[in-house]
Structure formats: structure tokens, C-alpha cells
Amino acid sequence: MYHKIKMQVCKRDGSYEDVSFDKISHRIQALSKDLKVEPLEVSKMVCSRIIDKISTTQLDTFAAEIAATNIPTHPDYGTLAARLAISNLHKNTVDTFSEYIGLMKEKAGCIKLESSLIYMVENNKERLDAVINSQADFNYDYFGFTTLCKMYLFKIGETIVERPQYMLMRVSLCLSKGDIDEAILTYQSMSNKKYIHATPTLFHAGTNHPQLASCFTVSCEDSIESIFNMNTKCALISKGAGGIGASLARVRRRGGLIKSVGGSAGGLVPLLRQLNDTARYVNQSGRRKGSIAVYIEPWHADIFDFLEAKNNFGDEEMRARDLFYALWIPDLFMERVKSNGYWSLMCPDECQGLVEAYGDEFRQLYTKYEKEGRYYKQIRAQDVWKSITKSQIETGTPYMLYKDAANIKSNQKNLGTIISSNLCTEIIQYHDPNEYSVCNLASISLPNFIKEGVLDFDELQTITGIVVRNIDRSIDINLYPVEEAERSNTKNRPMGIGIQGLADTFAIMGLPFTSDEAKQLNIQIFSTIYYAAVKESIHLAEKYGTYPSYEGSPASQGQLQYDLWGVKPCTDIISQSQWDELKENLAKHGLRNSLLMAPMPTASTSQMLGNNECIEPFTSMVYKRTTLAGEFVLVNKYLVRDLDNLGLWDKTMFDTIVMREGSIQALSVIPAEIRDKYQTAWDMSQKHVVDMSADRAPYICQSQSMNIFLARPTNANLSAMHFYAWSKGLKTGSYYIRGKPATRAQVVGGAASEGPQCLNCSA
């Protein structure tokens, strides 16, 4: 009956022909090769719902959406959806990379490419066209591809003209600084999904506006000029797609004396509201609203106003809900909470020097001010603590970072005291009102290093070296939105290397996330990446010299990150003699980069590459993805394949997992080893998450975005978790506290409390 439907389709040349079920079925059948799908059923669904005069482009898009709705039946439907969507894009775009560059050069109203990139392509077009592997586009799953289309691929008007492989080559050419061989090596590494650069780099590389950096940290002095200057600079950074961490620790308390006019200060809240409006108004390259995390220390007299500013209730004049809140916590505060001691709230203007002090110096200065009675108010430390945990239960914030650990274990301690982190808590760098710290990011896709069930550590080292070289070059290429950022970044040359797909890696290798084998593999992975990153940075220092502020740093004195943690390096993969040789070369040549490692959230790029985010466990076996086409329910692809092999996967199993809120732990029909392998973050003790973070920490010279998952967070379980993380010496005790709602309108696994859209940090 379907071949008799009296509807027409508009072909790409503008002509019309009758809709043909046979043609639609043949196309879907051809793209279903080697997949566990029912192409005939998909074809019937497509033909029963199409409209008259639909274009072939719209028809392919519609067919992909139809296929994607069947993903709960089997993940292969997602592969079919991707093949339909990607082949559709290929039909609508030019066939060679050089043609694409020529198109972008000629067309008005599109993003302008930099002249040096155009020159490189025009003079090497045959070689570059031959290198492009357009078939590699089909390695993206449907939701990775829709992420690329929605956010990354360049358009002329509303029409996408860039293929994923063209984007990767554009980025590679930009980062190569004219070295075609290096550009091709970079392209092939990213085309094979070994690693990916961060969102701002993918947005802007190769354009006339190469703002490639992801993360910025800023601060201000306690003056009207400095405060408004910081706000303006936040707007300029946000305009260029940078995520911001802002320290407000020096701003005087509400009611504090303004000596020059004899008035009283408004405190933190008016400044919070101002930054809140800036984040809302200045969207990031037109793609999303700005994101700013604000930091203070818990002795600040406005601490309670600060903790309540994100609440959904109360005085609107005291609220700034679009910001993200974070605490920079000295050890003394944790000790006072633990002992139920008193805590003194102070004004930074009246008790100067606290922001710049840490460790024993902070302790001595703080207790000196207490003895002198220079505090604004004294209360029980646990009263502050209960307000912190109350805010985390209600909003997921504040983030918890530990000032003393961050400074004592920093390779930048020779520059001064670090006073805050960034938007996503993984960047730990020195900054002040004259120097804003900056970080360019990339993440390594761990699942793509597994060969025959074993992780290829040699290739992991090779790719890490490529990542270091590219991020180092990006520091020089970068168009800085403000001079304070350029001043800092060229002086210190930091970078942030992260990973994605740790949970995928364990699943592919058959390891439960909480197993001893997974814990050891976690250490092996990070020690290997850190070793390779330091080795490449030493090599760059030998060629180009050390970063300008190198002298006086711990590295210049022979100390690497594991030394600052007081541990011996892991010798499972890298031998002791290799570590020793690394130290010898460090003494000879120094480092090109002050900081190297910073596992970030990887929100969008993990979706692009089809991995679970960064270092996190799976949060559910059933989850949702939202695209322009709507909301889709998906299932963990590794679980489906394991259950399918056992003959246990069907629609009933899917429905049962949905009703179990994405957990399989109570399903006795599933073998115990499978249930152990697929524990979700909610199923496991968060002690495992903290332990793994602490185990990898000696190889992370910045910090890590560590979320905590507590289905029903309370003061008691939050306190236990925070004090455990602090006792382990972590710099970041928690990024976001993710909880589940007490009641659910729809039973699908996932977090109730959402963190910032850290696309900035999605390396």
C-alpha cells in the first residue's frame, strides 16, 4: 500500500516526485547493514507520518528521528539514526575540505576564517583533501552528531556547511602554527576520537576571533573602581565564551564603614546581583548565557547572605540565582566545625591579610584578630556549617574547595596565594586584580585506547604529548579578551588536560567501578598521563625555554605533584628509572608549562564522542537526551549488549529498569557480576568516588571537578562526606552535590539538582 501514497517529495535539485516506499525502504535497509534493527518497520513508521511536499533533507532528518525513538529497543537504532543524519549532511555539503574553505572564503554573512589558514589550505589542498576521512563522521552516534550540528559546525545563514571532519581539520590547522605535518597528526588523533579540544577552541579555532581559552579566574580589590572594572572584564570574557570564577573575598561586609564618605557599604549582595545581570545579559558567542561562579571564605561577615543568595524563596532584593556559589575554605574552619568551637566572622577591610594568607600564617593572623576583638560577630562554627549543608541540599551549592591544600600542593606557590578556583572547580591558579588566570583545555577519550580488552598505555603517552604541544601553541595563538588574562597566561603558560569515559573504560574492560582492579587502573591511567605531560613539557622547555615565572616554583626545585603529596609515584606502567630520568631532565631543562592536569566536566564533548562524562560513575542505566528534535530516552549501551548476549534484553526489561529509577541492583534475574559491573553513582558509597579522586590526585597538578551523588542529602551524610574528602587532602572537596527529588513526575534515572552548563570546561 505504501507505494500508492499520493504524496510528493522535493528533491535536492528542486524537482518533485511521488513518495516511494521502496526508495525509502531501500535507503534505510542499506544503512542498516550489520545492525540489530528492523529497517522495514522503521520505513513503515516514516511513510505513515510524512507530509506532502517534504524535502529529501527533511525526510532524512525525520527518518533519523523515527529511528532514534526506537533506541530503548536496542542501541543500534541510534547508529541507524546517526547514519541517516550524517549521510544527509554529506549530501548537502561539498565533498572536499578545500572546497569548503573556498566556500567560507567567498560567502558573505558567515564566520570569517583567518587568512593564514586559508593560505595553508590553498597551498596544500591536494594533501589535505586526501587526508580527510569523511567516513570517520559515521563514528559519531546520533546524539553526538546532533550536538555537533546544534553547537559546533559552521553555518551560512541557517544551513550547516561544515562536516565534523572539516571542523577537526580547521582546528588542527589553527593549532599547528603552519606545520602541516603536525596539523595532520593532530587531525588524525581527533578524527580517531583519541582526544578533543575544549568548546571555545572548537568554536573559534581558525577564525578571525581565535578566543580558544575555556576558564578564567578574576578578582577585585575593595574599591568601586576595581569592582566595576572586574564586572566589565567579566562581560568581555563571557562575550568570548569564557567561563568565570570570581573571588569576592576582599569586598567589605554589609554595613562596613566607608571611611572616605562616612557611609556604610552595601556588602556582597549588590555585587552578586550586578554579576548575575552580567551573566544573563552577555551571552557566550550567542550560544548560551554566561556562567560565573563566585567565591568567598567562610569567615566573611556576609557569609549567610552569600549562602542564601541562590534560594528560590525570600527577599528578591537579596537573591542572585543565576550565579554559582563556592567556598574557599581554610583548614582552621574545618577544625572549628569538628570541635564545635566558635567561629569569628570578619570584614576583610578591618582584618586585612587573611585573603592572602594560608596554612600557619593564616592561622596565626586569624587568631590574632580574634584576640584583638576585631571580628564582626562570633558564633558556633557548626551554625555556619549547617547553613552550608542546608544550601547544598536546596541548591546543590556551594562548591567546597580547600584553601590550604590548594596552595600547599601548587606548583605556582612562588607567585603568591591562590584565592579561588574557576567555574567548575578544576582550575587552581594564582591570580590577582592585575593578572587574571586562564586555562586552555582538552580531554583524552579513554575508551578509544582499549585494544582487545587492554588499555594501550604507549599510545596514551603518545597522544598526551600531542595534546601538550597543541595546548601550548594555543597559548600563543589565543586572542585574549582582556589584557590581564594575556599577561598571566603568557607568563605562566598553564594548561588543563582531562579525560572522559572513565566509567565506559571500566565497563568495556569488565570492571566494576568500585573494584580493586578499577581503582588500580585509575592510578595507572593518571600517573601515565601526568608522566607523559611532564615529559613533553620538559621537551618543549628544552626547545623554547621555560615559562617566564618558572624560577622559584616547586618544579624548579625538583618537586613534582606527587612530591607535594608526599607519595612515591606509581611504577606499574612507568618504571622508577623512568621517573628518575624525568627528574634529571627536569633539572636540566625545566618546564614549559606551570600546570598540566585538570580533569574537567566534559559535558558537551563527552556527548559528542559518546562517552560518560569525565571521571564520574554512570548516573543511571536509563537517561534522557534532549535535542532540537525533542527528548529521547536512552539505555546504557554496554548494559544492553551484555544483557542481549545473555538473552535478557527486551521491552519488559527496559520498562522494569525505568520503574527502578535506572538501577538494576534489585533485579535478581540479572547475574550478580553484571549488577556489580553496572552500579550507578546512586548505588555506591560516595567513599569510593572520593577515594578514587584522592588516588589520582598526586598526578593532578591543578584539581578535578568531583561531583557527589547523594539521593537524599542530609546534614549528617553531607558532613561525613565533606570531612572525609578534606581528610584525604583533596583540593576540591566537592563540585556539585547532586540529589534526587523527593517525588518524581517521570521515573527516569538522573540528577535532580543540575550544575552549571559547563560547556566552557567541556574539553
Mean pLDDT: 92
Unreliably modeled segments:
743-760
CATH class of the largest domain: Alpha Beta
Task: Please describe the biggest sheet, giving its number of strands, its sense, and whether it closes into a barrel.
Answer: 7 strands, mixed
How many β-strand runs? 25
Give the number of helices: 30
Q: Any idea how many domains?
A: 5
**CATH fold category name of the largest domain:** Anaerobic Ribonucleotide-triphosphate Reductase Large Chain
Radius of gyration: 27 Å
Largest sheet: spatial strand order: 16-7-8-11-12-15-24
Which class of secondary structure composition applies to the elements? Answer: alpha/beta
Q: Any guess at the CATH architecture of the largest domain?
A: Alpha-Beta Barrel
Cα(first) to Cα(last) distance is: 50 Å
Q: What is the molecular shape?
A: globular
- Strand-residue fraction? 5-15%
Helix content: 40-55%
3D architecture notes:
- With 763 residues, the chain is of the alpha/beta class.
- Helix content is 44%, strand content 12%.
- It folds into five domains: 2-91; 93-192, no CATH class; 223-408, Anaerobic Ribonucleotide-triphosphate Reductase Large Chain (Alpha-Beta Barrel); 440-617 and 681-711, Anaerobic Ribonucleotide-triphosphate Reductase Large Chain (Alpha-Beta Barrel), CATH 3.20.70; 620-679, no CATH class.
- Strand 7, helix 12 and strand 8 (243-247) form a beta-alpha-beta unit.
Set out the fold topology.
Blueprint: E1 8-10, E2 16-18, H1 21-31, H2 39-49, E3 54-55, H3 56-68, H4 76-91, H5 97-106, H6 115-123, H7 125-131, H8 142-152, E4 155-156, E5 159-160, H9 164-176, H10 180-191, E6 195-197, H11 199-204, E7 215-219, H12 224-239, E8 243-247, E9 257-258, E10 263-264, H13 268-281, E11 292-296, H14 303-308, E12 324-329, H15 331-338, E13 342-345, H16 359-371, E14 377-380, H17 381-395, E15 399-402, H18 403-408, E16 437-439, E17 441-445, E18 450-451, E19 454-455, H19 457-477, H20 483-492, E20 496-500, H21 502-508, H22 516-544, H23 561-564, H24 576-589, H25 603-609, E21 622-627, E22 630-635, H26 637-645, H27 651-659, H28 672-677, H29 686-696, E23 708-709, H30 715-727, E24 732-734, E25 737-738
Parallel strand pairs: 1-3, 7-8, 8-11, 11-12, 12-15, 17-20, 23-25
Antiparallel strand pairs: 1-2, 4-5, 6-17, 7-16, 9-10, 13-14, 15-24, 18-19, 21-22
